[in-house]
C-alpha cells in the first residue's frame, strides 16, 4: 500500500537517506541537506554546515552504518564528510567531476563516489572519525 507521508518543502529532492535508528530522514536537494524528524515530519534545524552554496545542487547523500558520519556532495565537485553529533566537517574530498552517487564501504572506513565522468573515486575516512575510534564523538 502506498501513501504519501510528507511533501518536503525543499524544491527539488534528489536523494534520501535514513539514519540507522529510523528517527531521522535526510533529504538532499537544491542546494541544501535537510533533516526530518520521522515522528512529526518537521524539519530539524542545524547550523549552516547543512547549507550548500547557491551554485550547488546537493544531489547525493550517504550515511555510514551507525549514523555517526554523513557524506554529501557540495560545490566544485567536492564530497563533504560531516559528523552530526558535533555538527563538524571532518574532511572535504575532491572528485574529478560532479558526483552522482555516494556510499560508504561496508566497514565504514572508505567513501566512494561515482561521477558524470564515469569514474569512481575512493577516499579513506580519517581514523579519528571512524565510528569505533576512541577519538570519535558519539
Automatic annotation (TrEMBL):
Coiled coil: none annotated. SMART domains: WD40. It comes from the Eukaryota. Pfam families: WD40 (PF00400). This is Uncharacterized protein.
